[in-house]
Amino acid sequence: MRLVLASSSSARAGMLRAAGVEFDTARPAIAEETLRRELGAAEPAAVAQALADAKALAVAAAEPDALVIGADQVLVLDRMIVTKPADEAAARRQLMRLRGRRHTLISAAACARGGAVVWRASTSAELTMRDFSTDFLDGYLAATGKRVTSTVGGYEIEGLGIQLFSRVAGDLFTIQGLPLLELLECLRSERLIGT
Question: Domain residue spans in the chain?
Answer without folding.
Answer: 2-189
